[in-house]
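Two proteins, back to back. First:
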Amino acid sequence: MDCNRVFVSKVKRLTIVFTLLIAFLSIKIDTFAQVDSAVVPVDSVLADSAHAAVGEHGAAGHEEKKFEPTAVIMEHIADSHMWHLWGHTSFPLPVILYTPSGLELFSSANFHHGEHDYNGKFNNYRLEEDHIKVVGANGKIDEEASKTVLDFSITKNIAAMFVAILLILIVFISVAGAYKRRVGKAPKGLQSFIEPVIVFVRDDIAKPNIGHKYAKFMPYLLTIFFFILFNNLLGLVPIFPGGANVTGNIALTFVMALGTLLIVNLNGNKYYWKHIFLPDVPFWLWPLMVVVEVVGIISKPFALMVRLFANITAGHIIVLSLISLIFIFETLAIAPVSVAFVIFMDILELLVAFLQAFIFTLLTALFIGMAVEEHH
């Protein structure tokens, strides 16, 4: 049985179902919007009449705040200066600002969830859409002064990355200690779980794509594989210390792609560079081929960066969109369907967590192999 064909078929079916669901949702939202626009004038007239008759403020009641799924979703996938735990409880994170006057250090709790400004040593600061701005003497944001402030704060994504690094260190220091204590013995416990993964990266990723020089690059390949995997898995956990969109942050994927770019090109042999700058083509085609090859040097890691960022972020958005259906329709009748889709998507995201770590590592090994390949 062709498992790949079955998997592709399942994904296509899921895509069609989800597209129809979104289309249905869009129609319902437009319908509700039209109804609201028709009702608002009537409500306004009734409210004004009641206010005139009674003569008291608030007789018309308070307008119920509408649920905005876009704002909620963007808030969850974006970075933040606070780590939300539950309800209205958040864990404040350290704010580190470098200003022309000096270094500012304080807790994000001073902003009180963005409701208050903080008077620092050198400036007055305000948290606006999770960006720290300088407030002028007139009480308004000073954009020019804000541009001179460099934000090196420990944000939610950075804190989550440190948590993942700590877990990786604990796991691999424990496994390394087990190997030292159990020399010549069969793997046991955590050791028996990690060893097949390491062997898989070595035998199915590094050796086939890099060749006999694979050992030199194994530390880097193992590091990026487990770093992506741990962060992907933690991102699927809805409560602390999970829930952060680390690998869905394009700044992180950019740095990882940049690391691959440097390792590939710094280890490229003379045949690699000759293929780029002196390709075996007719002389009139040479200028075009050089441009194409140079663009290829940049486009390969760029594809790594965008692929990881887009797949992880899309997964978070889909799950949050499905949960938002309950609050958009304001009925529990949609809850069973929504929860069922969320559970299915979480299972699929579990596969994607491993798959994206594998693809990033595989393509990195492939690019390295192309750079160190000997001429035959």
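And the second protein:
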Amino acid sequence: MSMTHHAEPAVTTPPAPGPKETDGRTARRPLALRLLARPEVGVFLGAVAVYVFFLITAPPVREAGSMANILYQSSTIGIMALPVALLMIGGEFDLSSGVAVITSALTASMLSYQLTANVWVGVVVALAVSLGIGFLNGWMVVKTGLPSFLITLGTFLILQGVNLAVTKLVTTNVATDDISDMDGFDQAKKIFASSFDIGGVEVKITIFYWLAFAALATWVLLRTRYGNWIFAVGGNKESARAVGVPVTFTKISLFMLVGFGAWFIGMHQLFTFNTVQSGEGVGQELIYISAAVIGGCLLTGGAGSAIGPVFGAFMFGMVQQGIVYAGWNPDWFKAFLGVMLLGAVLINLWVSRTATRR
């Protein structure tokens, strides 16, 4: 007895509509998590919180003139924090940046005064000196392979001693002579230390420089080959070198950018106060680095942005002036900065883990 099996045609039933399955690698994360992944988002929220805090506790902050002072204070930190942040993204940092500002200002002041020359002679020579210091730092880091912490710590000590010793030798004082009556002073002051009246409020030119430099740095990081090189050498310099990234050029140029920032702020201080105290600048490097760290730049390199340090510098300026407007003891300023730094590091850690959690 034979049995015949009849094959029935397969009936294809369309799947029920529902959410598209993904393997986890291509799943699109929620917008909130994607925003948290940005290094500058955490510091932006922190800056808003600090601003609201002092807006409530310090009524003078609500005035336009007070905000102009806060932005000015922030700009003098932020202009230096930008190149310091780029250097940190590139995997290095500079402990000599604070005293390098004073070195630049002292060079321009003493050279112009002692030679009785136009102040622009001193300004140009100071630029060359600042770029030279940056080049030397970068060259030693690249050629020796030593950590930039050690190299720039040595530079910090050298510049600190040279600033004091040379100033006393040349001027027989710890400060330089007043150069406000020298040729070219008024023109240089307009460029580096002038102010504008906007709606009856005096606004310093450094605020505009700060925002312009931040926009330029953002464009460089996100839209240029050089920006890719910065992230590459900060992430893994050997891998970057293997794919053709000019590691030596990138690192040295980043140190020279810090030198340029030191020159610019040095010229601002010189043409604002007409004279320079040779012992100043010590400790400022920590503020610049802290503003960059608060802004989302990692000490290990390879991550960060130019916008984050803008908010980081604003937080510093807000706290520094807000304490004064609130009538508190200004001795608490450094304590506030320490709390801000630790808080920012913890927030960035939490944000990073939250953003990458699936």
